[in-house]
Amino acid sequence: MEFTTPQFWLAGLEIILVNILLSGDNAVVIALACRNLPKRQRRVGIFWGVIGAVVLRIILTFFAVRLLQLPYLQLVGAALLIWIGVNLIGEDEGGDPDVRASDRLISAVKTIIVADLVMSIDNVIGVAGAAKGNLTLLVFGLVVSIPLVVVGSQLIMKLIERFPWLVVAGGGLLGYIAGEIAIDDASVKPWIEATVPQLHWLAPVVGVAIVVTAGRWLVQRHKNAKTR
Length: 228
Description:
Elements: H1 6-22, H2 24-34, H3 39-61, H4 64-68, H5 73-90, H6 105-131, H7 135-162, H8 166-183, H9 189-195, H10 199-227
Helix pairs in contact: 1-6, 1-7, 2-6, 2-7, 2-8, 3-6, 3-7, 5-6, 5-8, 5-10, 6-7, 8-10
């Protein structure tokens, strides 16, 4: 597929649209991870976090189908996503040294990359399908999408500053995604579909409950520790 052909640009537009639709939750993670950074470092954190996540997503795309067939991989990813969600909610803006808060640039970038990697296990299949195995097309679509994800995360960050409760909502979103990922794992999906199909809607709800409850508990613990 030539770079100058209409087919290339049509397929590239398809990848961009797919990536935008699948990157809403990624923009939330970026905003949550960078919200405690000094303002002068926020754009740097967003930039390197997105770059690292896109590079990993490109690599992951080529192994996506095979990776999704590995048992327990998505269960591990779901657990990791819940851990990230709990910590993002539980971060204390007061700067408690015992909390691994993302008020440091490297920590924020790591959080963005890890969360995006976990959430992209399913998402990259849609992008890979649109690219039809064309590496140039895949890279083009993802790179063009970067500014859109960056702008989206900055808008969300501004909303978080105005409406702090969005931090809890964002963490809950990660819990929801974790529930969806867990029930699609190759080791449990056949059993769930045959025995308890209700888990398709129950697992995401449980994921939200776990993340929000644990995250709020961490916040309260930090506040209690400061009053002692």
